[in-house]
Design brief:
This protein is α/β, with parallel strands linked by helices. It has three domains: 114 residues, D-Maltodextrin-Binding Protein, domain 2 (3-Layer(aba) Sandwich); 97 residues, Periplasmic binding protein-like II (D-Maltodextrin-Binding Protein, domain 2); 91 residues, no CATH class. Helix content is 39%, strand content 16%. The protein has 14 helices and 14 strands. The strands form five sheets. Strands 10-9-11-8-12 form a five-stranded mixed sheet. Helix 9 packs across helix 13. The N terminus is likely disordered. The protein binds glutathione (GSH). Glutathione binds next to strand 11 and strand 13.
């Protein structure tokens, strides 16, 4: 039974249907096209969402904008391709997108079996529970027997199945297609609880329901959900460009380089790391096959990681998430830029 469940879950994640198309040369290819095709969520506030003018915004969007800034010197050279949980991996394998940046949890099976490579974590998350305050639950265990709504094709089904087994507590599970349907099901009372990445729940609570104060996100996190972009296998140069573009945003935060002071830092900073990061010394861009001003373009156009975080999911957003595990290691978080040397 469990094996059947795992197989069904694997199919739902697109794992079994993995043709594993290897396509080296993504850099040449995007240069020819003049844009980077970026696979994003159809609409998840804080991560990837088109505003009323059709401009895509969010933390996942910024990962693609950073790569476009690095490659073209222009963060706007991105074509956004909205993807569902179910079709996201195939879209990357087939070459429909060059980067998958869609609140995707990095896991063993996804890294090792679907012809893809995880780049690095841009948001450390965990599976949480959103309930109506009238339900009067202090933690997940108080919810025994409740109807829990979740989205299909995500890591959450297996997480919750594992958790129920380990804790000997049963829920009624309802699997739904889209976040919109999930919100409607929660509002209509079809489900007592919604379970998802807690950032997604914060996004729903912040902007998806009419009365945010009627809902609460329980403190429990039943899984680790390290979210981050993925690229195709067998294209190390592209993997390097995407990874180091993201790393540059973290390093900039650590070194105190911001979109506002980057030019000044380039002109004046005597910090060797800053000089290498901004392309004054070291030829780091050339080593990636791109311009030495790559990171300068990223920081000026997209900002450092803190700027992107606060604007999209932190204080400057409706999600209002603390940095928590997404803070720099030097302040007790998990974000640790690999040295620029
Ligand atoms: N991080 C999880 C969840 C990602 C995911 O797809 N989440 C749901 C909501 S948390 C979603 O975006 N659903 C909308 C859709 O599939 O269009 C994963 O990678 O499996």
């Amino acid at each position: 039974m469990l094996r059947l469940f795992v197989l069904a879950a694997a199919l739902a994640w697109g794992l079994a249907a993995a043709p594993g198309v290897a396509q080296a040369g993504t850099l040449d290819n995007v240069r020819q096209k003049g844009t980077i095709a970026c696979g994003v969520n159809v609409g998840l506030g804080g991560f990837s969402m088109a505003d009323s003018a059709g401009v895509w915004k969010g933390l996942d969007v910024d990962a693609c904008r950073a790569v476009a800034a690095a490659v073209f010197g222009d963060a706007s050279k991105v074509r956004y391709v909205p993807l569902t949980s179910a079709n996201r991996f195939t879209a990357l394998q087939s070459g429909e997108v060059d980067i998958l940046s869609r609140n995707t949890t990095l896991t063993f099976l996804r890294d090792a079996t679907v012809g893809l490579r995880m780049v690095m974590t841009n948001f450390y998350d965990g599976q949480g529970f959103l309930v109506r305050k009238t339900v009067k639950a202090g933690n997940v265990k108080d919810l025994a027997g409740a109807t829990v709504c979740m989205l299909q094709g995500s890591t959450h089904e297996l997480n919750l199945a594992d958790w129920m087994k380990q804790n000997n507590i049963q829920f009624q599970l309802v699997l739904l297609d889209t976040t919109d349907v999930l919100i409607k099901a929660l509002l209509s009372g079809r489900c007592d609880v919604a379970s998802s990445d807690s950032s997604n729940l914060a996004s729903i609570r912040g902007a998806g329901v009419p009365n945010p104060d009627d809902f609460v996100i329980l403190p429990d996190r039943i899984s680790k959900e390290p979210l981050g972009p993925m690229v195709r296998r067998a294209d190390d140069q592209w993997l390097d460009i995407v990874r180091w573009s993201m790393m540059a945003m973290l390093e900039a935060e650590e070194a105190g380089v911001t979109s506002a002071n980057a030019d000044d830092m380039l002109a004046r900073s005597t910090n060797p790391t800053v000089q290498r990061l901004l392309g004054k010394t070291g030829d780091f861009g050339k080593l990636l096959g791109i311009d030495n001003a790559w990171a300068l373009h990223i920081i000026k156009q997209v900002g450092n990681y803190a700027e992107s975080y606060e604007r999209n999911v932190g204080k400057g957003s409706s999600l209002k998430l603390d940095r928590g595990p997404n803070d720099l290691w030097s302040r007790g978080g998990l974000m640790y830029p690999i040295p620029f040397r």
